[in-house]
Design brief:
Elements (H helix, E strand, L loop, with lengths): L2 E5 L5 E3 L3 E9 L14 E14 L12 E5 L12 E5 L8 E2 L3 E13 L4 E11 L21 H8 L2 H14 L4 E7 L2 E8 L3 E3 L3 E7 L7 E14 L12 E11 L5 E7 L8 E2 L3 E14 L26 E13 L3 H5 L7 E5 L1
Parallel strand pairs: 2-9, 12-19
Antiparallel strand pairs: 1-3, 1-20, 3-6, 4-5, 4-8, 7-8, 8-9, 10-11, 11-13, 13-16, 14-15, 14-18, 17-18, 18-19
Protein name: GP1 homolog, RAB6A GEF complex partner 1
Organism: Seriola lalandi dorsalis
InterPro entries: Rgp1 (IPR014848)
Length: 355
C-alpha cells in the first residue's frame, strides 16, 4: 500500500494568475514486521488543474455538449514525483469559484497515480479561485508609498510581481472613502437623507450607512437594508425570454425608527461569497436593497411637561395608515487577500488516498 497526501501549505484560496503550489508525498507505511519485499513501487503519477462547470437545465440553455463540462488548463501540468511538489499558474482568464442557483464553477486539483499491477486511482483536492476581472484604477497610478532610498534594482523587482501589485491596487481602491449622499423620497415628500461612505468593497468588509430623518417631512416607521447578489444568465443562454434574475440575500438589518432623528446600520460582507464577475454565460452583481414603511399622516412625538411629577406612559397609535416602497443601490464587491479568505474556506487544502 502507498499513501498519497496532497497539501496546499499556503491555503486553499488563490487569485487567478497566482502560482499554486501543492506538496505531494508518497509513503509506504510499513510496520516493524514488514520486510523489503513488502515495499511497493509507484508506476506513475500526474497532476492537473480542472474547472468543472455545472448548469441548471431549467434555467440555462447550453449547446449540445451538455450541462456539465470539465475544462483543463491549457499547459501541460505533469507532476514529477521525485520533486515532491507540484506547481502551476491558476489560469488568469478562467471564471471564479461560484455556486449559484443556475450556474456553478468548481475548481479542483486532480492527482492521478498508479501502483505497479494495480488500478489507477484519483485524488482530488478542491480549492477556491478569486478573480480580479478589471483593474480598480489606471495601471500607471502609484498605489504604494514611494521610498527615495529604494535602489533601482529593488524597485524593478517590486514591479515584476504583478500579483502583489494587484493586491496593492485592490487594497488601495477599497480603502478610499468618498461619501455618497441620497435623498430618500416617496410620492408624498422627503423621508430622509442617506449617506454611505463608499460603494466599492472587498470581501470581509462592513458596509456602513447612516440615515438622517430630521430632514424628512414624512414620518418613517421602519426601514430594512439587505445585502443581495443578482445572478443573471446572459441573454443567448436564457431558457426563456425575459428570464427573471435570481436574487440571493446575504444579510439583513431591520430597525424601527419612528421619532428617531438619525440611525445607522452595518452589514458585513461574508468572506465565503463570490465577488462580482461576468462570463459569456452568467453575470453576478451586488446591491443594497432598502425597504421603507412610512406614515401617510403626520405623527406627533410624545411630549413631557417640564414640571410634571407623575410618570407618563406613552403608547403608540393602534392603527396607522402606511405606505411602503423600496430602493436598490448597486455596489461593487471585489476579492480580498487569498490568505485572509483561506481562514473562512470550507476547504482544508489537504486530502489523502491509499493506492
Amino acid at each position: 500500500m502507498i499513501e498519497v497526501v496532497a497539501s496546499m501549505a499556503r491555503g486553499p484560496v488563490f487569485l487567478a494568475g497566482e502560482l499554486m503550489e501543492c506538496l505531494i508525498t508518497f509513503t509506504n507505511p510499513m510496520s516493524h514486521l514488514s520486510t523489503s519485499a513488502s515495499s511497493e513501487m509507484l508506476a506513475w503519477a500526474s497532476a492537473q488543474i480542472h474547472c468543472q462547470f455545472h448548469a441548471s437545465e431549467n434555467r440555462v440553455a447550453l449547446p449540445a455538449q451538455g450541462n456539465k463540462q470539465d475544462v483543463q488548463a491549457e499547459s501541460d501540468t505533469v507532476l514529477i514525483p521525485s520533486r515532491d511538489s507540484y506547481s502551476e499558474l491558476v489560469p488568469i482568464d478562467g471564471p471564479p469559484s461560484f455556486r449559484g442557483q443556475s450556474v456553478k464553477y468548481v475548481y479542483k486539483l486532480t492527482i492521478g497515480c498508479q501502483r505497479v499491477n494495480s488500478p489507477i486511482k484519483l485524488l482530488r483536492v478542491p480549492f477556491r479561485v478569486l478573480v480580479l476581472q478589471e483593474p480598480p484604477f489606471p495601471q500607471d497610478e502609484e498605489v504604494s508609498p514611494s521610498n527615495p532610498f529604494l535602489e533601482e534594482e529593488e524597485a524593478s523587482r517590486r514591479d515584476a510581481r504583478p500579483l502583489e501589485r494587484a493586491l496593492d491596487m485592490l487594497m488601495a481602491t477599497t480603502s478610499r472613502r468618498c461619501p455618497h449622499m441620497f435623498n430618500i423620497t416617496n410620492m408624498r415628500g422627503k423621508v430622509a437623507k442617506f449617506c454611505i461612505f463608499k460603494i466599492v468593497y472587498r470581501l470581509g468588509e462592513d458596509i456602513v450607512g447612516t440615515f438622517n430623518f430630521s430632514e424628512g417631512d414624512i414620518p418613517c416607521l421602519q426601514y430594512s437594508v439587505s445585502l443581495q447578489s443578482e445572478e443573471e444568465i446572459q441573454q443567448p443562454y436564457q431558457r426563456r425570454p425575459g428570464q427573471a434574475v435570481s436574487v440571493t440575500g446575504h444579510g439583513r438589518h431591520l430597525e424601527s425608527c419612528l421619532h428617531t432623528a438619525s440611525s445607522h446600520f452595518s452589514l458585513p460582507i461574508p468572506l465565503n461569497v463570490t465577488p462580482g464577475f461576468s462570463t459569456d454565460i452568467v453575470s453576478l452583481r451586488w446591491r443594497l436593497h432598502f425597504e421603507f414603511v412610512t406614515a401617510r399622516e403626520p405623527m406627533e412625538p410624545p411630549t413631557v411637561l417640564q414640571n410634571q411629577s407623575e410618570v407618563t406612559v406613552w403608547s403608540g397609535a393602534e392603527h396607522v395608515d402606511v405606505d411602503t416602497f423600496s430602493w436598490d443601490l448597486p455596489i461593487k464587491v471585489l476579492p480580498t487577500n487569498p490568505a485572509l479568505a483561506s481562514y473562512m474556506s470550507q476547504f482544508t487544502g489537504t486530502n489523502s488516498i491509499n493506492i
